Amino acid sequence: MSRTLIRGGLVITAVDEVHADVLVEDEKVVALAAAGSTVAEGWTADTVIDAAGKYVIPGGVDAHTHMELPFGGTFASDTFETGTRAAAWGGTTTIVDFAVQSVGESLRAGLDTWHAKAEGNCAVDYAFHMIVSDVDENSLKEMDLLVDEGVTSFKLFMAYPGVFYSDDGRILRAMQRGAANGGLVMMHAENGIAIDVLVEQALAAGRTDPRHHGEVRRELLEAEATHRAIRLAEVAGAPLYVVHVSAEQAVAELATARDRGLNVFAETCPQYLFLSTDNLAEPDFEGAKYVCSTPLRPKDHQAALWKGLRTNDLQVVSTDHCPFCFVGQKELGRGDFSKIPNGLPGVENRMDLLHQAVVDGHISRRRWIEIACATPARMFGLYPRKGTIAPGADADIVIYDPGAEQVVSAATHHMNVDYSAYEGKRLRGKARTVISRGTVVVDRDRYLGRAGHGRYQTRETCQYLV
Ligand code: DUC
Ligand code: ZN
Ligand code: ZN
To answer: Is the pTM of this model over 0.90?
Structure first.
């Protein structure tokens, strides 16, 4: 047995901030004791980590990543190996990635493919949601089997006709199944049928630049789809989790539903909190770096997102990490914005950007941990193994230096992508030491982890229902 003692830090969870020492045995947290108490002073360990002046926080849980996702004729540029290594550098110790069912394929075949991509390659722990692209009798039955084996959430798309899209009837059927088996339906809420009409009209009129991606994917079409998804979930008697919310009007739909007491939940992402249509409008095709869906919105939407995070109308911040290199990948859409692969890198930056939000006064320190660690773990059935520091929890712990200064740059990041969406941004705070299930994987500027340390995590059903 190995014992690690983390001494003298401020332990921050979603509910507490306490000056405490943390004792780890092998892969688990076994005890916390008040700093300086006789109990804590009596502890001995093989490794003692000095956390004086630092925060001791749970490892981040990023509930929305797409390593190696096939999209628009290419693949997301981070593999499970490079993407989870970058996650570790940024203080994220669990990812929940999306396995994909292709049309005509079973859920099982899709899930097996994603297991094969990830197994033996991950630096930190990982789990899967299942993207359901083909709702039929067989895939509905398979949903039951997946819930039983720990894949307890299913993403459906109201966008991308011909690829991932499901119509309302299919969505209703999947939600009814989720209501019966405990699976949580996650929704990409944009009216893709209407968007495709606007795309066609924009291209025909010669509006081909990246900024038109944001213009055709109208805020109202996000709000309309969000409203429809909520109503369908209500009819099915199912809970709902809306992914990557970016529009103020969609937040309003969510707030109304929650005020009515419905089990309706949602995430937003750092790109919607820190970036805007100004980035999409950058000249010389640079705007392509910021093409994702839902799209970036005008800056004035950000206030509604921050407010939603403060009032708990939005519960989670995930990245939707889906990187494509500018050279050779984003460039596929020169002259036609609809051919730009959708997605932004961010798995390495989320914890630090949200700490900057603490520094800037948008959220409290405990809320930072709640939206980035505890609630994603609860939402997707990983709590309290993940998302907190408590006896019995996995020892996924970050010694976080709140005073460190960093400038975000592709020159220094670890994601396998040739640009940073936050290039040049100054941030206060940085992970100093990152521990994954008791093993130090990052220490100061050294990477000590390995591909294959990360272990697949089965999940319970949603632990966040009211
Ligand atoms: N949105 C993105 O930006 N990328 C991948 C899929 C999605 O829904
Ligand atoms: Zn999506
Ligand atoms: Zn996504």
So the answer is: yes
